[in-house]
Design brief:
The complex is a heterodimer of chains A (about 475) and B (about 425). Chain A is mainly alpha-helical and about 475 residues long. Helix content of chain A is about 65%, strand content about 0%. Chain A contains 24 helices and no strands. Chain B has a 4-stranded mixed β-sheet, with helices on both faces. Chain B starts with a helix and ends in a 26-residue tail after the last strand. In chain B, a hairpin with a 5-residue loop joins strand 2 and strand 3. Classes of the chains: A mainly alpha (about 475), B mainly alpha (about 425).
Amino acid sequence: MNDSHLPPDLDRWPSDPYRILGVPRGARPLEIKSAYARLVRTYKPEQFPEQFRRLRAAYERLRAAHGDGRKPTGRPRSALPASPARPADDPAPPTPAAHSGRPHRQHPASFHLAFEPAMQGAWEQACEGREEAAYAELLRLHAAQPGQADVCLRLYWLLALAPGLDAHRAPRDWLLTGLGSRQHGGLLELLCREAADDPAAALDPRCARLLETLPQIGSVSELAQCRWQGAARAGQAVPAIVADLDRLRPRLAGVHDTAWGRLLLAALRHLAWETGPVRAAAATLRGELESLTHIHRQLAQELTELDYLWELAAERAALVRANGAPKPGRLTADIVELAQQSFVFSQAYAAERADALALRIAAAPLAGLLALRRTLGSAPRLASWFDGLLAALLEQRGEPRRAGLPDELDEEIWEELDAMPWSKYDDVRDTLLAYCLRAAVSPERVAAAARRQDRFRTGPKWEFSDRLDADRLLHCVWRSCQLVQF
Amino acid sequence: MTSSSRDLLDDEAAEWAVERLGWEAESSVAERRAAACRRLARDVGLPAPGEWRQLRLAVGAGTEADRDAALRAVARQRCQALHAEIDRFAAQFFELSLADRRRQWQALHLRAAGAEAPRRRLEILEHGLPLALAELAALPSRQRELAEEACAQLVLRPAEQADRRRALLKRISGELRLWEKAARRLVADRPWLARLAPDLVVHELAQGSARRKLKAAERRRGAPVPTIVTSPRMPRWGWVAIFFVAASAVAVVTQSFPSRSSQSSRPSWSGIAERVLRRQREGRPLFPPADPAAGTQRELPAATVDALRPLVEEADARIRQPEVGSWLEQAGYRIVFVESEPQLLPATNIEVQAALEDTQQIVYRFPLADGRECLLVVNRANALLLAVWGVAHEPLPSAVTDPHAEDPDAPPSSAP
């Protein structure tokens, strides 16, 4: 991600689509397209869904502007007019025309002359705190010209900010109305966010029907994935996925194989974790994906991730078989659930929730290690995944690197290892963790020090370094304790 | 969640969003809506996802997901701020008057109610609250130096503590025995000072870990191991006489105490607990038939029950009473973790079983006078891993073993 001009914190991304894509104003469509393609290689949708979504929205906005045959000059035209009391750092006020540029109904010039100032006037009322009047005016405009995307976008925002304005509608109703059968980057992006967040929006039948009518295949896939995420929040992902795949198969399978393959991959991220017949169905879908050999090169990375996911899910299934269904609130159950969430939602989503688990482990490191060993001892991939998550979290929080630890530390570690009651690695694991915590020395550092000393290459200690490096559970406990410290 | 608590959370999330958006905290909802509309005009109607949530939260129209995200961010922000404040507090900890120190600590502790990590750090600092550095002046010089070092380590974070401890041990390596002696005196006479830096005072010095490691290193390097020089040299017949006297004493003691329980360094209650467990394994009743004359007297001595009672009745699930902690430490246990969640006892039993299967931990099970039970899981290093209490709903695993323990009920050993 280092070659990107965009900051790592999504909140600090610019809102200007030109700045997002890193192209100058007035860039040619080809430049825009190549900038978008370059960024998408960095922000892959599976790894950075939010970033990808924003890139996509920015690209669609610019592409829409070009689709009109109008070369974008300066700032893209806003869907919403600037307020009279515009902040000083605001860019130049946008032109009042609708920005979307999708095939609008053709109206006489007199209509636009009357319509667009009216829309802008309504928004200015909202900016002055008169939302009711603004909403009423926009409703009037909507009645006069139903389905105008820009009017719907304004109505959505007014209702989202002041839900009391219209007791009979939810804000997403305006998004769905505005989208109709037309593509609108802003409306679609907002609908995707609503669907991913809110199960009610995700499970709205109109949202499902929209999948059949959206003209762009990429948008179909994006909306479907957001819908499944929202449905997963209510535990309804499986029926939604099954219904959507049935709905989209005639349109995509055999016609748009890459898009269909991506959709199957997204579905498998949910279904792989299921058991029983759903898991069997997932295996069938995987088989279908395997049979699409001509797209394997394009989806190589995603397919590798799928293999990994499949192994994690298999470990989870084995744990369930051995120990019964995971009991909510138990450490292992929560870790497994987190692994599932990281694939169903995103790694960032899982990372945000890993704190609580780290805290529980750090509250009782030795007991935590015991509990983890009992359950995750037979699931090395899940253990490794959790360790990776904690490591990423530490990295993200700016774990203070203890550079410059003295070389004498090696000596101390060797002495500590010598003092341990050795017969095999398992016997000293607890003692080793206690030492790491007491001396604030990472297990990696201990293993590295042991590798530098000949006497740990013989007898029962010979495999020590390797075992310690491979002991992801001990690393998990160590990292949890580190996370809790700051 | 009640509607009032939900409102409070909504307010908190809204406050956070307003701060992030850079708006006036005192602004009304109507003003915020108007500001949101102006901002939307700037963002082409499609703000960044984070801002999208913040706008809705700021006007009180956030969804469940918006609020969750905001509250997580609030908690993280608050935790970081608290850590920074605790750092500042710790830096001037011993410079503050006792009253100020306690007042500031209490204020921080109140604020850390929902933030576990800062709260744990404050609880470590709590050990130093009643301590005035002037008190240390009365100690013998080395004990004073050690206590001052413990005070200095108390206020540091774990990594800094370890570095400082490392530097000290290196500095005093030539006179470790003297420091050990001082540490043992400190543990015995002033355990509250030893608790300020238990890793240094108890583990490295009082228990002699540092010296053992040093000696091992010297032995490896072929250097002469320092020994205690006895003078003047005792004649050989003196050793013979001592041997006979000692052998006679051992014979007398063995006859008087066939159980040899006096050889154990563990406290007497562990022996009793083991006997209880053995009885259970052998299918014998846990307690001898009650003597009607003795009323409700049980097998456990009252002193043991009394010592455990604070453990049992502590609602906070931690050993907070210094006397109980001290009692366990004196009994040779290093407290690593104590947890009690009576409602989770069946689940905990599973963990206990895992512990037994995996590492042959030793479990002590104490029936308490009020009918509940207390389980202590102890590892080979005599570290108390887990303490739980409550009413067991599942049978305990039968593999409760400690091969080194003596069975007080077993016939006397024929070995000399």
